[in-house]
Amino acid sequence: MKKILNPYLNKEGYNCVCCAPNNPVGLHLEFWEEGEDVLTIWNPGENYQGWINTLHGGIISMLMDEVAGWVINRKLQTTGVTMQLNVKYKKPVMTTDSQITVRGHIASQRRNIVTIHLTLENSKGEVCDEGEAIYFTFGPDKAKEMGFDSCKVEGEAMG
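and the corresponding structure tokens:
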């Protein structure tokens, strides 16, 4: 598993609620690459519950949407926007769990439309939620305009 370097760290105005490390109310997510998957590991905590000790469904959707974006960044070396996100809530995710893992990979691609399969697993490795994101990806010029240059992993040559 290789840590993905955040390509947005030195971008002016960068304050993503999911992945900006200095956002005071953010999730401070980091990402890893494992084969075809991109994943994040996160400790939910009680501040993110919808019902007592249960992770809010909107937070689950947000986590999946964010992982989908990082799949696009890393695997296709571009950026884009979410066109559609479908989540199947299969089992409650407990905020008392020590960690959850959200992972995604490209399921299909047709030109600039990419479908990403997503899962959320609890600390026991049980799949609690499944999702599918459909992404519209940008060409190189638009990606650069949006502040994206490249997305590397630790130890990968810059350039």
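(Above: one complete record from the training split.) The radius of gyration is 15 Å.
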